[in-house]
Structure formats: C-alpha cells, structure tokens
Amino acid sequence: MTTWRRAAGQGLVGAALAWGAAWAPGGWAQTAGVAPAALPPEVEAALARTRLPRESLAVLVADAQGSARAAPRLAHRAQVPVNPASVMKLVTTYAALEQLGPAYVWNTPVYVQGTVQDGSLRGNVYVQGQGDPKLVMERLWLLMRRLQGQGVQVIVGDIVLDRTAFDVPEQDPARFDGEPLRPYNAAPDALLLNFKSSVMTFVPDAAAGLARIQYDPPLAGVQRQPTVALAAPGTECGDWRGALRAELADPAKVSFQGVYPAACGERVWPVAAADPRGFAARAVEGMWRELGGKLTGTVRDGKVPAGLKPAFVATSPALAEVVRDVNKYSNNVMAQQVFLTLALQKNGVATFDGAREVLRQWWQARLGDVEQPLVDNGAGLSRDARLTAQALARMLQLAWASPAMPELLASLPISGVDGTLRRSQSRAGTAHLKTGSLRDVMAVAGYVHAASGRRYVLVAVVNHANAGAARPVLDSLIDWTARDQ
Predict the structure, then answer these.
(1) 106-316 has which fold?
(2) What's the CATH fold of domain 10-103+319-483?
(3) Of 330, 3, 351, whose CA–CA distance to 183 is shortest?
(4) pLDDT, tens digit, for every residue of 25-61?
(5) What is the C-alpha separation between 199 and 246, in angstroms, rounded?
C-alpha cells in the first residue's frame, strides 16, 4: 500500500493541528504548550534502533474503565491529528455495531418474473444487491441452487443485476497506489461478489511435470490457462509469483509465460478483477452455467420492476461476524460496505457523503465535543483520513462500557495469535488490537490486558517515511502497557 502525501495535505493538516490543540470538554486535559510526556525507556530505545524520531509517534495509554477527566497513563503527541491507516476501521465497525446492532444482516432478494414450465423460465431473473459485504463464492453457489429449487433450469430471458442501492462514483483501482490487481483496492458495490476478486490455486504434479490451476469463482467468457510447467527440479520456491510471469490485465484471458516451482507445494494467489464493473455479471453467469443452468439471454445491469415480489431472499452472516472479518484481517472493501450501509439504512440509498454525515451525527451524540475524525471512506485506505490518538482512545473507553463491547473486542486481532497480529513479537495473548499500515503509517489501537488484571486502552500511530520499521516500537509499547508498571 502507499502513503499519504504530507506536502499535498499541509493545509488540511495545519487546520487540524490548530483545531486539535485547543482542548474542548470531554477529553484528557492537555495544552499545546506542554512538552510531550517522557516515553518509557524501552520505547525510546526501540525508536533509536529503528531511526524513528520521537515526533513520528503519537500515543495514548489510559485505563479502559477510566473517565475523560482521569489522567492517562501515557500521552505523547496525543492531540496531533495523524493518518491512522486501517485503525480507522475501529470507528466504522463500532459505529455500525451500535447503530445497526450485532445481529443485523444484509438481505439480497431474488425475483423471478414470468412463468416456469418444464424447468424453463420465460422471463427474467432479478438479483437485487443491498450491500452484503460477504456474498462470497460459496454463498453465490447457494443462491443459484435456491434459484434452481424454484424449478428453474433454463432462463429464456436475462439475469438482471440491480445495484442501485449504492450511489458511489466509479473508482480507478490503480489510483491509490498503482496496484489495480491487488484485492485490497477493490471498490464497494451494492452487489459485491467475492470481493470482486478471483483466487488461483496452484497444485504441483511432479510426475506430470506441471502444476494444475484451479480458478474460483468460475467466470463466463474468460479463457483461463489450466496448467503451467514446473520449474527445474531443485528450484527453490522464492518469488514464485514473479517466476510465473502472469498476464492478468486482459479481463477475458489469464495466461502465464513462466514456470511454477514444485518446492512451493500448493499455493493460493488472490487477484482483483481486471474489469471490476463487469466482474459480477461474469461471476453470476459462470456460476449458473457451472451448476448446469442454461441462459438464452445475457447478464446485465438493470432495476427490479415496481411491484414484483421476491421469490426468495439470500441472507448474510450477522454483522458481528462481518465485523470480525473486517478487523481481524483488515478487509478494506468489507469495511466500506459496512460504512455505506449506515447511509443506506437511514436514507434509502448509500453515498459516501451520506455515510460520513451519519457517522458525524453518531459521534456527536456519543462523544460530544471530542474532536471528530476525518473518516473519508471509513476503511483507512486513504491519504486524507485523520484522527487523534486521544479521540480514538476516548471512543475505545466508551466502547468498553457499551453493550457492543464483546462483539467489538472479539473482532480484534490477538497479539501473537491471529489475524494481522499473528506475527507480533509482543507477549502473545496480552492484547486485542486493530492494526494499520500504509507506506508511511504503522499503527495499533485497542485493548491490552495488564499483569495486574486491569485493562488499558492503547492507541499508537507512527507517521513517517520509515514507518515500515516501526513494528518493534509498537511491540515495546504493548509490552510496557501489559507490565502495568
């Protein structure tokens, strides 16, 4: 992922600094003229080893059950607005848990227009997207099986995809960092199928001298190379993707000019669609035909006719499960789907401006004068998103006392155990923390269980050109917080 451009954002940052420095009621009392608190020696040492200046770090540690007036255990540049990267997902997911409820589900109605006779439907099938973040391949398969359960084997007409629930602009997937085929750059969609991504699974067969390639989901109208030659015996796995010399830019064809090292064993390569807008139609038709269904027309975009009643409704997993996927694995497009759903539920149609306004109103109602975050798209995949460590820490204190706390806590990666924290070198199992990383950002935020039995809120964000080296700094903060000195 790429960085936010500091030079281009000086006006925004300067305004935010001035706004954040003047303390308003509702947070920890600090003033802009007070020197930052001394950092723990081990944190200072980690900064020195990684050649990161103290000014690159914003951190706040406070009792999870503390009040806004209680002094924090540690505060360093906590009022300075910073780019939080994917830590922003905490704001989106907690707001959703409170406003929608942990049991909220997304419904995808399917309509059958016309008459069914001898397995043939003379008319159209309509699939109406309502923002389901987890309409993955397995659930698309079930949806198509349910359609066949209506007695439909042949559609003498079209399959129409209604995506009008989201009114979002077309996005260039290469705009953020020039990596359009990375799944994390997928854009939100009212009918988001399999995250607009395919998965290629390579299985070596040494006896045959090749690796077989399985592609999921099946896509209509795409030529896909079924096998690739194995590399010479003894070739190390190394950069196996580079060795394949894949040609993936053509939405109608996937091919490879290289070889696959048998030493890699079975490997999986997820790839975003080269034609994001056309992916849903290819996936729907591909799955329908994979199940033996026939289609005389096409799969196209359109709108469900007024008055038509659904034949059945496909229901998503509950929000609590979706939030776990968003936070454990930092899924950007799922986070944006959740964010847009806030606007969809209030306004009947989802826009980014609408979602930002809903979140602004929620924040004002729950946190009062605590400085508002600049959420942008709600996922943290942004050069413009900003918040302060102190504001996020206060939100996490409120979340700790909220009925939604168990679901939010369970959604966070556990240090040294799972999710994006599985490789953390801090004490395993002591913390539930959301991570964030861009080229110039490294961050963690969440809860740390201390040796004393107390729970602390920890928010730590590094904004610097060398932020990629900051992991030991963050690990040292986690360990220091857990020791409860």
Answers:
(1) D-tyrosyl-trna(Tyr) Deacylase; Chain: A; (3.50.80)
(2) Beta-lactamase (3.40.710)
(3) 330
(4) 345 544 333 445 689 999 999 999 999 999 999 999 9
(5) 14
Closest CA to 432 of 412, 408, 418, 460: 412
pLDDT at 426: 87
CA neighbor of 140 nearest in space, from 1, 35, 24, 289: 289
| Cβ–Cβ under 8 Å, residues 253 and 247 | yes
Residue 406 CB: number of other CB atoms within 10 A? 12
pLDDT tens-digit readout, 153-203: 999 999 999 999 999 999 899 999 999 999 999 999 999 999 999 999 999
Q: Are strands 294-295 and 154-156 parallel, antiparallel or unpaired?
A: parallel
* 10-103+319-483 and 106-316 share one fold: no
Q: What phi and psi values does residue 384 have, to the nearest 5 degrees?
A: -105, -20
Helices within 22-155 (DSSP H only)? 41-50, 89-100, 137-149
Q: Which residues of the chain have pLDDT under 50?
A: 1-26, 29-35
| Alpha carbon distance 356, 378 (integer Å) | 8
Closest listed residue to residue 127, CA positions, set 278, 279, 303, 298: 303
> Which among 99, 104, 87 has a CA at the least distance from the CA of 332?
87
Can you read off the two tokens belonging to residue 140? 């698309």
Can you list the pairs that 469-474 forms with residues at least 24 positions away whose Cβ atoms lie under 8 Å? Answer: 469/50, 469/51, 469/52, 470/50, 470/52, 470/56, 470/442, 471/424, 471/425, 471/442, 472/46, 472/49, 472/50, 472/425, 473/43, 473/46, 473/47, 473/50, 473/52, 473/57, 474/426, 474/442, 474/443, 474/444
Q: How far is residue 217's CA from residue 478's CA, in Å, rounded to a whole number?
A: 40
What is the residue whose two structure tokens read 């090292």?
261
Query: Quick count: other Cβ atoms within 10 Å of Cβ 214?
Result: 13
pLDDT at 28: 52
Q: Where does residue 12 rank: exposed (0-12), middle (13-18), buried (19+ CB within 10 A)? A: middle
Burial of 350 (0-12, 13-18, 19+ CB in 10 A): buried
Tokens 């995809």 correspond to what residue? 161
Q: How far apart are CA 60 and CA 39, in angstroms?
A: 11
Domain boundaries of the chain, sorted by first residue = 10-103+319-483, 106-316
CA gap 169, 185 in Å, rounded: 15
Asked if residue 198 lies in contact with residue 219, where contact means CB atoms within 8 angstroms, the answer is: yes
56: which 2 tokens?
């690159």
**What is the spatial distance between Cα 166 and Cα 349, in angstroms, rounded to a whole number?**
6
pLDDT at 69: 80
